[in-house]
């Protein structure tokens, strides 16, 4: 059996105490262990929900293509691999609301619904089609609420519950099956337009009631609906569409959802337990058998910032590099999805809940986008493997399905370091090693990788910078790649 250990030798260039001394080199070693296999990665993404996608639709060329490339291009942009769409529930498109395909329900749950599809879906269909063109194949359509006519409060906003789940008693009856049919219709409409929806959600922050689309649910009530939705998807030949649940406002509630769904026997019907990070941050590992996705988070309070490192605040790109790293490396997440990809200046006092500010016909890119770009070397289907060692360094390693190995490293020190990647112990023949880095003045810039005769590859990463290595597939290897 083949030795599955890759050594990363990290040389730290320490500043000389005075100018008479040459800089000293101290070597740190990060060990990548390909035999230690953890979760499978589904990808990284963002949303264009609540009509934000229209900001890109309305951009003129060449700016429109520039923004799309920043989001989806795998060689020049963030290379995002997941789009999270909002399934509208509102009767109108006033404010930034997402309109529903069922403005009026039939008189009874068994009646024939009259769906009205506008072919736009608040700009999200267009965005999804463009994403498809860039090779994105993971589309997560998620409803914030059922249409109001299916709910206890008769309104898609202001909380309320789905008629038919335990604890409800609606005069109009049980709308669980009708809601499942409605979600299937959304998937079919996207399929008719060339976009295969791979994941479906039916809640958003169900532990909260808001003045816009919102529907409340416990994990137990969600399980009741999941038991209706799964066979409905299967009967529509949508067996490969995964059900995600339940978009809790924070990790603590998501963990409750996971255990309630498991107690109700519905966990095998769930693809991913989904959490946001607003009311409690992701920490530790949830310990569920389902995959876990972080599906919506952003800095809602900070004033618009494009900085990589200003002061370590919640909008800094560097902070986001650490946030995403924590999710996928420390907390076993299979996906990390930011909130809005783009937003205008007027909304929420021009805060940091977007990656790109689109202001009429101009746009500005934040370093949060480049934090995600550093993870673009990790492709959907990658398996996280062991990586350890090195002071002032955080490292994560992933084997992509094409056999390449991605190693993402954050330099938490304030000084530049030379990172040396040694391929000793690997059976790769002349692997190609490339590396890219981001700091205050670089955006996923490719940097020179020097490969010595001993097979040691070196690259430099600035203080508080992030560097991503991609080691090309090994040729002629009999074991795992490299
Ligand atoms: C990504 O950007 C490169 C460089 O500009 C370009 O050649 C390529 O066509 C872009 N990819 C897509 C899918 O548009
Ligand atoms: C079901 O879906 C598969 C692809 O997912 C397709 O090949 C097949 O034709 C579909 N069958 C029906 C009855 O629609
Ligand atoms: C990590 O997630 C996977 C599913 O992606 C699961 O099978 C595994 O048990 C999880 N590991 C831990 C420690 O919870
Ligand atoms: C790699 O494999 C190919 C085809 O199997 C073979 O021709 C070639 O000699 C091998 N190269 C090395 C360096 O082993």
TrEMBL record:
InterPro entries: 6GAL-like, GH, GH30_C, Glyco_hydro_30, Glyco_hydro_b
Keywords: Hydrolase, Signal
Gene Ontology CC: membrane
One MF annotation (Gene Ontology) recorded for this entry: glucosylceramidase activity
Protein family membership: Belongs to the glycosyl hydrolase 30 family.
Family annotation (SUPFAM superfamilies): (Trans)glycosidases, Glycosyl hydrolase domain
Endo-beta-1,6-galactanase-like domain sequence ranges: 28-280
Name of the protein this chain belongs to: Glycoside hydrolase family 30 protein
Stretch forming the signal peptide: 1-15
GO biological process per UniProt: glucosylceramide catabolic process
Stretches assigned to the Glycosyl hydrolase family 30 beta sandwich domain: 381-465
Pfam families on file: Glyco_hydr_30_2, Glyco_hydro_30C
Superkingdom: Eukaryota
